[in-house]
Amino acid sequence: MLRFALIFVFLGLLPAQATEAGWALLRDGGHVVLLRHAITPGSGEPANFDIEKCSTQRNLTDRGRQQARKMGALFLARSDFTERVLSSRYCNSLDTARIVFGDRIVEPFAPLDRLSDDKEAAKAQNDAVMKEIRAYSGSGNFVLVTHLENIVALTGSTAREGEALIVRPEGEGLHILGRIVFN
């Protein structure tokens, strides 16, 4: 029984330890961050989805906007400055990026949109994202706000809504150096 209690406590500490290691990396600056958009309802986009109209998309919930504000406060307080932010054009990603980092440095970037079902188009999206990541050489942090499918395709790993993965290019994909979990 004691063994199970210790395992439970240890597993509960893992996200906190991973988060602290992630902040330590970002304090040094010069890192690339994949950030999954904040909390949205459901999954998949409605049938009448239009990239130009937020009213046709899954948008941040009140809890998602609150999560994004918390993320912004923590990025400001705990990391080196954020030099550049690219975001999917989907409203849940753009709103997350703008709440966290402000309008002035957020750039919509179509390759970060939800990954295409067409394999060639998806490869072109990932290639464009990898090109941006490989070209980055700034001293501040570079953040890309996107969706679960994109993160999985680039890293082979999942991320919670509002979770940040600190990454570096490795081979054809990205190696995860650290994570930050925003509860």
Characterization of this structure:
44% of the residues lie in helices and 19% in strands. Helix 2 runs parallel beside helix 3 (91-101). It has one domain (2-180): Phosphoglycerate mutase-like (Rossmann fold), CATH 3.40.50.1240. A six-stranded mixed sheet has the order 3-2-4-1-5-6, with helices on both faces. It has 183 residues and is an alpha/beta fold. The protein has helices at residues 2-28, 62-78, 91-101, 119-135, 148-155; strands at residues 32-36, 82-87, 106-108, 141-146, 164-170, 173-180. It has five helices and six strands.
Brief descriptors of the model:
183 residues, Histidine phosphatase family protein
Task: Give the tally of β-strands.
Answer: 6
**What is the arithmetic mean of pLDDT?**
88
How many domain regions?
1
Outline the biggest β-sheet: 6 strands, mixed
Derived structural class: alpha/beta
Specify the helix fraction band.
40-55%
CATH architecture label name: 3-Layer(aba) Sandwich
Protein name: Histidine phosphatase family protein
Signal peptide: 1-18
Organism: Borborobacter arsenicus
Keywords: Signal
